[in-house]
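Per-record layout

source: Aquimarina aggregata
name: Peptidase S41
length: 527
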Amino acid sequence: MGYSKKYLPLFLGLAVGAGVFLGSKLDFNNPSAKLFSSNAKKEKLNRLIDYIDYEYVDDINTDSIVEVTVNRILENLDPHSVYIPPEELEGITESMQGDFIGIGVTYYSFRDSISVINTIKGGPSERSGIKAGDRILMADNDTLYGESLEREGLANKLKGELNSQVQLKVYRKGEGVFDVVVKRGRVPLQSVDAAYLLEDKLGYIKINRFAETTYKEFKIALDSLKDKGANSMIVDLRDNGGGFIAPALRMADEFLEDDVLIMFTKNKKGAIDNNFATSDGDFEEGKVYVLLNENSASASEIFAGAIQDNDRGLIVGRRSYGKGLVQREMALGDGSAVRLTISRYYTPTGRSIQKPYENGNKEYFNEYLERYKNGELQSADSIQVADSLKFKTPGGKTVYGGGGIIPDLFVSKDTTRVGETLNYLLRTGRMGRYVFEELDKKRVFYNSVSQEEFDEKITIDDEFAEGFLAYAKRIGIDIRLSNYQEQLKKYLKATMAQQLFGTDVFEKILNEDDAMINKVLSIYKEE
């Protein structure tokens, strides 16, 4: 008896679908809960796969069929239930844990060797004397230079077990080749990009994601700014796509009075889990401003919703993304995992900020682009809201559900799109590589420059900026920024500062003349 290939996904889909259905009924809070009360369904899937392996008329990769089938099932649930294959899970896990085991450098594969961009502050390489511009030639017996240098897998040659040692052979301009032993350690993946005083008593903290270490980083930054005299705070969550919920709850707790509702979740059975502020908050007085844009999602929206619904501060910017679903990860036993939506979350007034997804994933993700077309990013009047989704805060302010957090104070997007172009060049690494190469020509000088000297004496001239445009053109990017030289120079200097001193100085430079920050400053000075 034979079957056409087109029916294989259907058979597998039914079997895997049964598994997902049973998984949805798990008591995930009970660690003794088992995925299957009996092995009947599991055995059915195993037997089907074995049958295909041994008997199907053509050679076929059953692993790939299972992955395709799992993806198809999840796509039909909601946009945020996803399958994570083994080759991606490690990197995602590291990012969300907030650290990894390694030597603590960022680097480029530059020409024929690994070139250190900078060392992680307080990390193993900095402690061992590695500097920006150094070339790592060998790691133990692994050669890391030459025309045949393989870019893939380089990171794995520098990673290893915690406290294990690796002997590096390093070349440094002006000093030649030398050996250095580095003890591998935990290297932080920072989620707090910047923390500094904008005004004498106005602090600024920028957070790029919500990882396991985010609250700890945030708390250190908050306490430091308080010690410097800050009694008002800007929390910048622009382009923060979210992550773990717990750090967002603890951050909100810092600003909210005891026993105030932060948010609640509701699952398919209607069970409600409330999250309240505790007595741990250290910033329950003073002004709070939260910056959002169309890329702020998930945990960012939980934090902003708690601040807005409790009349604790002002939300400044543009309507956030609109993700109000909660996922839980389940390992599948082969290095892969599924993140399944298990509940919805609601802001303290009872709003769901999840945007509709009933018409499929394509329309769901295209909604993001529709905001460009309908004028919402330029005018608050173009934001489409439903009267049926009106809610009132305790202070009497009207807020809306149904698709993101709508700001209290709207700031339009730059219509020239110059910022988008420059951010694209940053994200893709083009600007960073150009700046690195220019720094490398005078590495000894730049490594001796202090941050104060950099701020006061280092300027980006026309030649440097024109050199970047020529470089971009050589690698196939023809951009026209002749009318925006000052913006380009600012981004180039910020990138240079990032490579020399880190993200704090980078953000500080980019924030000069920032529209949202200027909006906050104008209000702050009037109040």
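summary: The first helix runs from residue 8 to 24. The radius of gyration is 26 Å.
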